[in-house]
């Protein structure tokens, strides 16, 4: 019985050692390939869309991409008129920022619909425009 426990313990230790060495041999995950990042930047530059760019050091920059070359791109920050240049290799992700007008229109449509229901429905629900019948 003791021999089985020792044998199983040795097998478990060897398996864990093998898994640990395999995990250490793999390079750390990186962001998108440089070509994909370069293509995404070119698309955002051409469409003049605003973007949120996340970098490997954890920095996030929101703004409009105003220039790009083979190794780097320049982004004009959303909150300040400052422009900063970044390398494609530093990019982890690039996301497009949705228009504020679209968000505002959706919010107004939802609020308007709720107010219409509260006004047009009979009394218990439509208490805004109807008096209590009692």
**Envelope shape:** elongated
Give the biggest beta sheet.
5 strands, antiparallel
Q: Identify low-pLDDT runs.
A: 1-5, 21-31
Helix content: 40-55%
> Would you tell me the overall average pLDDT?
77
Rg for CA atoms: 28 Å
Q: Strands of the biggest beta sheet: in what spatial order?
A: 4-3-2-1-5
Order of helices and strands: HHEEEEEH
Class based on secondary structure composition and strand pairing: alpha+beta
With helices defined by DSSP (H or I, 4 residues minimum), what is the helix count? 3
Q: Roughly what fraction of the amino acids lie in strands?
A: 15-25%
CA(first)-CA(last) distance: 84 Å
Would you count the extended β strands for me?
5
Question: Summary?
Answer:
By secondary structure, the chain is an alpha+beta fold. The chain has helices at residues 2-25, 34-47, 100-120; strands at residues 50-55, 60-68, 72-77, 83-87, 91-96. Strand 2 and strand 3 form a beta hairpin.
